[in-house]
Amino acid sequence: MTVALITGAGGGIGSAIARRLSRAGMSVAVADRDAVSGAAVAEEVGGLFIPLDVTRPEDNQAAVAKTISVYGRLDVAVLNAGVPGQCGLHDFTPERYRETMAIDLDGVVYGLDACVPALRPRGGSVVVVSSLAGLASSPDIFYAAAKHALIGLVRSAAMLVSADGIRVNALCPGLADTPIIAPFRQSLVDAGLVIADPDQIAETVELILADKRTGLAWVAQAGQAAAPVEYPRVTIAGTTGETSGHGR
User: In terms of pTM, does the model score above 0.85?
Assistant: First the structure.
């Protein structure tokens, strides 16, 4: 039995991932702060619902503990919970900036901290949901800042936990048909942009889990085959030679 914990699984990409992994035969723990939608998805996939506010470290610890208490183990963690930026440069407030970072960055850090010790006994896989905005510029400036930070987190964490048999990779979806883009979906379509079905993004999670590499950022967009991107190669100067800092 393979057990997966998915955060932000009450809707959008998270719920699509829950359905995909359940169809693949995994036992799924659906974690979300929305009890109604989260419980509905858990019932649909025959899984476990866990109330979770990712901005609270103790909630993340409790979600992992609950998953293990019910299923006896944890093999996969998909850290998916996220929100669009709550402000920009034109309407900046520290409170709304912190709300963005608390969910989009801190929530993943807390999730990683909670799940890595649980994965160590058998090894396992962590998939962090970043975004194309984590690889390129975006008008949603603080969302992009958080998503860029997640790429650095993934690359560095992958290096640190590989000896424990734990792989850490990022999923970077393009535009997907989720509630996040609902307010401006039509304008995106009118601009000629293609929007992916969330199930295509969820399919990429299965590809990541089947792949044996770690520290990669996988891009998933409508009409394109999912694949990891090439990181820039940065040469670090040293007295005994040069070391290239890049992804695995």
Answer: yes
